[in-house]
Structure to design on (668 residues):
């Protein structure tokens, strides 16, 4: 079975340790809504001081406009736990991020928003950057077969946690699936109160 | 085979299985603040769900409050809206909150322990990465995102997978003026900011046993900066003495029962860790970061490294970029480096012990000309105690601004910011580009090192000369 999770243009962000303060700076965190963060994405890199686009930043290159797959390096999303970071990435248009590694909290936050985060070896990440160096890339991400399809029958496989794969394929409600264990939660609470009564 | 402390806490909180690799864990304490909770409450409402355990949920205002004036609108319109949203959500759901009218209000990771909300063996979560702080009590504590905040509000549980375990053994005696902050930075320097990815770190050894709870909190606070999911220290008599008679700690007949349970919370002697590192405390000198990542750190006397000195290509590139951002050159000494701003505060270093350490260095001296220095206590309790002990007077007499509790210049969401190009000696936890303000240059240090930098106008080695 083939199921294309996403097909689209790739934007290469050749940096390690991109932290969530860079993905979305703090001045945008005072919002009480979940929307309107696309403009804030990579704000300090995307704009020079007076709000003029920084033409040296890869996201502003004409050939990467409309990108929906972000390719980057190690420890992406480190730092603050702000979920505004995946919100900003997603609202800008990125549905897939490919990196050598991700920070834990950022990874969970992204998955909880239905994004696909693909972790690959350093060697494979290098190969993907090499591909990007040849010119703008359109890739397809097949989640069912766990492959990045480059066209012309070329592909690269990736591994993914089976639970996350299932959640992304079926679109299961995050809270709803835990609520199915409602009886177990109540039983645990009763047992906890008996064992450690001071916890309430 | 024995179990590690992490495995014991994890196992005792399994409610059920979601699938082969994912467990549903029960959450004992959920701390919330204004920045990462509003969207969770609106999501909850939209889905017609309610807060399952208001008695296990606790709120404070900290991230964007003004530290100049205790008023909701003092930090601007959007901050006020966010603070009001938290107040409304708490009122509607009857969640207890330390708001700006409460004398104990403060930074979420300072008030949790102070209020006795943080206890050994618990699972504690909060929509903030420095939740790792609470691991100092032998609680499994970690930061979560807003979707997870909503999940915990609704179910008091969280789906989790078991992490790998890392043992950090620290033995030996620290030199005078060398603190938990220096230990934390030295460990991160050794492991790197991604070194702990996928791990829960447990800190053990006689250096740790000799540490106060404040120091242990500083160390666990920084464990997220090495990428670890959480930091842990097994509870002992120091922990129990700290918790005794705290507002929300077990009272009466519950106290001895709780202590006896807490005494079982340690890694078994035959427990196997996935990785172990050893650190000799005597080798640690006062640390200062020179770059834009906490792993870019050196002892205060060591020259700033040259990018070429890094074998790894990506570290080399990162170093070159960091030096440019920080306005430093290879071989330069930080002790020759002028500072413009000094910030003593944040959930890393705003507790009473930190303020005492900073005040002890000042000793009748005054802040150097041209340096702006501020002290922001972590909570109302810390502030009152520092005032009662005369520390506030020492700071004020030296020329420090003495502020109201809050996160303040740690992330500059309120009006406390470092200007572009300014160099700041900061006791906070992140020296990322722009963290304290766009173009701001942050050097992470201990409170004593920050205070000395304020007096000298540049970084100094406080283990030497007149400072020692
Ligand atoms: S003091 Fe800084 S690190 Fe700590 S909770 Fe506040 S913003 Fe986060």
């Amino acid at each position: 079975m083939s199921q294309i999770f996403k097909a689209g243009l790739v934007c290469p962000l050749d940096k390690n340790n991109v932290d969530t303060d860079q993905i979305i700076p703090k001045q945008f965190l005072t919002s009480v809504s979940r929307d309107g963060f696309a403009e804030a994405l990579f704000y300090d890199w995307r704009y020079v001081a007076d709000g003029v686009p920084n033409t040296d930043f890869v996201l502003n290159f004409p050939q990467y406009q409309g990108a929906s797959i972000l390719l980057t390096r190690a420890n992406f999303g480190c730092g603050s736990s702000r979920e505004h970071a995946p919100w900003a990435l997603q609202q800008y248009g990125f549905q897939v991020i490919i990196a050598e590694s991700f920070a834990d909290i950022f990874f969970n936050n992204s998955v909880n928003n239905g994004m696909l985060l693909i972790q690959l070896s350093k060697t494979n990440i290098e190969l993907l950057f090499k591909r990007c160096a040849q010119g703008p890339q359109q890739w397809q991400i097949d989640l069912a077969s766990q492959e990045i399809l480059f066209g012309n029958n070329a592909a690269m496989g990736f591994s993914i946690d089976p639970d996350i794969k299932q959640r992304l394929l079926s679109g299961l409600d995050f809270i709803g699936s835990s609520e199915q264990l409602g009886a177990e939660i109540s039983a645990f609470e009763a047992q906890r109160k008996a064992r450690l009564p001071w916890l309430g | 085979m024995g179990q590690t402390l992490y495995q014991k806490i994890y196992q005792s909180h399994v409610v059920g299985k979601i699938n082969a690799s994912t467990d549903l864990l029960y959450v004992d304490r959920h701390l919330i603040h204004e920045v990462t909770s509003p969207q969770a409450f609106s999501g909850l409402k939209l889905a017609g769900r309610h807060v399952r355990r208001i008695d296990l949920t606790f709120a404070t205002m900290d991230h964007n409050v003004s530290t100049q004036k205790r008023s909701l609108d003092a930090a601007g319109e959007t901050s006020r809206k966010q603070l009001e949203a938290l107040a409304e959500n708490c009122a509607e759901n009857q969640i207890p909150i330390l708001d700006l009218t409460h004398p104990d209000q403060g930074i979420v990771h300072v008030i949790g322990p102070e209020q006795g909300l943080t206890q050994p063996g618990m699972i504690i979560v909060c929509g903030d990465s420095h939740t790792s702080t609470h691991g100092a009590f032998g609680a499994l504590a970690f930061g979560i995102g807003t979707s997870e905040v909503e999940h915990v509000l609704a179910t008091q549980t969280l789906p989790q997978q078991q992490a790998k375990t890392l043992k950090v053994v620290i033995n030996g005696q620290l030199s005078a003026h060398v603190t938990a902050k220096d230990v934390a930075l030295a460990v991160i320097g050794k492991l790197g900011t991604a070194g702990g990815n996928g791990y829960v770190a447990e800190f053990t050894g006689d250096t740790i046993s000799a540490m106060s709870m404040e120091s242990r909190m500083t160390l666990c606070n920084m464990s997220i900066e090495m990428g670890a999911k959480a930091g842990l220290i097994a509870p002992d008599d120091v922990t129990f003495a700290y918790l005794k008679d705290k507002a929300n700690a077990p009272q009466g007949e519950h106290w001895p029962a709780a202590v006896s349970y807490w005494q079982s919370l340690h890694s078994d002697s035959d427990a196997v860790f996935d990785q172990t590192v050893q650190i000799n405390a005597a080798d640690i000198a006062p640390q200062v970061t020179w770059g834009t990542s906490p792993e870019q750190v050196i002892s205060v006397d060591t020259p700033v490294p040259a990018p070429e000195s890094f074998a790894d290509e990506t570290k080399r590139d990162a170093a070159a970029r960091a030096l440019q951002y920080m306005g430093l050159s290879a071989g330069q000494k930080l002790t020759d480096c002028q500072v413009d701003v000094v910030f003593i505060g944040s959930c890393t270093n705003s507790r009473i012990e930190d303020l005492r350490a900073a005040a002890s260095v000042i000793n009748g001296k005054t802040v150097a000309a041209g340096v702006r220095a501020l002290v922001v206590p972590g909570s109302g309790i810390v502030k009152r105690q520092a005032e009662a002990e005369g520390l506030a007077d020492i700071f004020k007499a030296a020329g420090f601004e003495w502020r109201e509790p809050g996160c303040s210049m740690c992330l500059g969401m309120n009006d406390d910011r470092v200007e572009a190009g300014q160099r700041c000696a900061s006791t906070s936890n992140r020296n990322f580009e722009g963290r304290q303000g766009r173009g701001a240059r942050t050097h992470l240090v201990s409170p004593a090192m920050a205070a000395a930098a304020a007096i000298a106008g540049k970084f100094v080695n406080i283990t030497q000369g007149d400072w020692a």
User: Anything to note?
Assistant: The domain at 5-276 of chain B is CATH 3.30.499.10 (Aconitase; domain 3). The pocket of iron/sulfur cluster is lined by residues B 62-63, 107-109, 128, 130, 346-347, 407, 410-411, 428-429 (CB under 6 Å).
